[in-house]
């Protein structure tokens, strides 16, 4: 009888394991391959070799790029070098990247590990850059003032909070006000790995201001990219492992109400919003297994989608670019400026194309 019970429990355990394994593979799109979609004139950006995980383009064509991310369990081509913020002027015929010098006595450049970024331009045209940072694999938000003439970033403040333990991306709604995604619930690496494997969907979005910090949305299977509509009325959230982008209505008290969700056959990462058209541009991972378990013989692919009219009943989704990893590995972000497309990656290069 005892042996029968043991065999029954073992059988149940194996069945549950198989179910979770199948779910894990589905969430990671483990068997997906890409069909290439090419653009007519693409060039790799000189000077970017160790990632361009997030980027933001100002209305004047200056692009900020976060480079050198070290993320737990993820490939890095420069594991011992600190990250950096790069600047690129997209008005130039052949734009080059320049590393922005960081000034300020209270900032530790040696542990700089930038992830998601966002800008806020004040009424006096002061540009603030907010950067998700992972010094020693912790999570902070670094607040910088962009000094264009000096081509430098003045460090103003480091923000830490118990509701910001696993930051991924950020969208600024003021100099010290932002929404941010936490891509995990647990901080402990062992528990994080089980959270990911079991698909607990406990990650969440926080609103931060100096006076108030609140969870505004939760229940995500790896909350990732976040951005806001040009009129400031809607917040877009990418749920990486559910292959969804969620649209939330933003209220005057900063609370968010879910409005709709869109499903995709790819892992959606960072979201950029065209300030003129309101279109969403999304860097995607066709196959998450290849990005998590890096193999130089089976490279992670890249994909860029454009979403037009997202607030209507029939949004138009276009696959703009797709490549199997031989040119660009692990795309995370894409943004447009005057008919040009800039695509960034977790740990690889960056691509600049004509649309």
Characterization of the model:
Its cofactor is Ca(2+). InterPro entries: 6-blade_b-propeller_TolB-like, Arylesterase, Paraoxonase1, Serum_paraoxonase/arylesterase. Disulfide bonds join 42-353. Glycans are attached at residues 253, 270, 324. Capable of hydrolyzing lactones and a number of aromatic carboxylic acid esters. This protein has 355 residues and is mainly β. It has a single domain, classed as TolB, C-terminal domain (Neuraminidase), CATH 2.120.10. It is built from three helices and 25 strands. It has helices spanning 2-27, 189-198, 288-292; strands spanning 41-44, 54-57, 62-67, 84-89, 97-99, 101-103, 114-121, 127-133, 140-147, 152-159, 167-174, 177-182, 203-208, 213-220, 223-228, 234-239, 244-250, 256-263, 267-273, 280-285, 302-308, 316-323, 331-337, 340-345, 351-354. The strands form six sheets. It has a five-stranded mixed sheet, with no helix packed on it. The termini are far apart. The model is unreliable at 9-16 (pLDDT under 50).
Question: What's the arrangement of secondary structure elements?
Answer:
Blueprint: H1 2-27, E1 41-44, E2 54-57, E3 62-67, E4 84-89, E5 97-99, E6 101-103, E7 114-121, E8 127-133, E9 140-147, E10 152-159, E11 167-174, E12 177-182, H2 189-198, E13 203-208, E14 213-220, E15 223-228, E16 234-239, E17 244-250, E18 256-263, E19 267-273, E20 280-285, H3 288-292, E21 302-308, E22 316-323, E23 331-337, E24 340-345, E25 351-354
Parallel strand pairs: 6-10
Antiparallel strand pairs: 1-25, 2-3, 3-4, 4-5, 7-8, 8-9, 9-10, 11-12, 12-13, 13-14, 15-16, 16-17, 17-18, 19-20, 20-21, 21-22, 23-24, 24-25
Keywords: Calcium, Disulfide bond, Glycoprotein, Hydrolase, Metal-binding, Signal
Organism: Odobenus rosmarus divergens
Function: Capable of hydrolyzing lactones and a number of aromatic carboxylic acid esters.
């Amino acid at each position: 009888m005892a042996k029968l019970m043991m065999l029954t429990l073992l059988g149940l355990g194996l069945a549950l394991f198989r179910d979770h394994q199948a779910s894990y593979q589905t969430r990671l799109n483990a068997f997906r391959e890409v069909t290439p979609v090419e653009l007519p004139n693409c060039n790799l950006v000189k000077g970017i070799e160790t990632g361009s995980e997030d980027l933001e383009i100002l209305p004047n064509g200056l692009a900020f790029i976060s480079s050198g991310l070290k993320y737990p369990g993820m490939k890095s081509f420069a594991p011992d070098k600190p990250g950096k913020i790069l600047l690129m002027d997209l008005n130039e015929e052949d734009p080059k990247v320049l590393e922005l010098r960081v000034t300020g006595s209270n900032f530790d450049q040696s542990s700089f590990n930038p992830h998601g970024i966002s800008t806020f331009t004040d009424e006096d045209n002061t540009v603030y850059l907010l950067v998700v940072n992972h010094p020693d694999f912790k999570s902070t938000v670094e607040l910088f003032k962009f000094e264009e003439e000096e081509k430098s970033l003045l460090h103003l403040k480091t923000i830490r909070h118990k509701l910001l333990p696993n930051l991924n991306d950020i969208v600024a709604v003021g100099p010290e006000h932002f929404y941010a995604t936490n891509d995990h619930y647990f901080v402990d690496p062992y528990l994080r790995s089980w959270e990911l494997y079991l698909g607990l969907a406990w990650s969440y979005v926080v609103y931060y201001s100096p006076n108030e910090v609140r969870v505004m949305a939760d229940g995500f299977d790896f909350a990732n990219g976040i951005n806001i509509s040009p009129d400031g009325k809607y917040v877009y959230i990418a749920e990486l492992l559910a292959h969804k982008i969620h649209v939330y209505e933003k209220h005057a008290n900063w609370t968010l109400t879910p409005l709709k969700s869109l499903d995709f056959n790819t892992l959606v990462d960072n979201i950029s919003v065209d300030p003129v058209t309101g279109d969403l541009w999304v860097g995607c991972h066709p196959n998450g297994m290849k990005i998590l378990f890096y193999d130089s013989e089976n490279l992670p692919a890249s994909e860029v989608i454009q979403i037009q009219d997202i607030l209507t009943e029939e949004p138009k989704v276009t696959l703009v670019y797709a490549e199997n990893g031989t040119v660009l590995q692990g795309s995370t972000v894409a943004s447009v400026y005057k008919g040009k497309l800039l695509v960034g990656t977790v740990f690889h290069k960056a691509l600049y194309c004509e649309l």
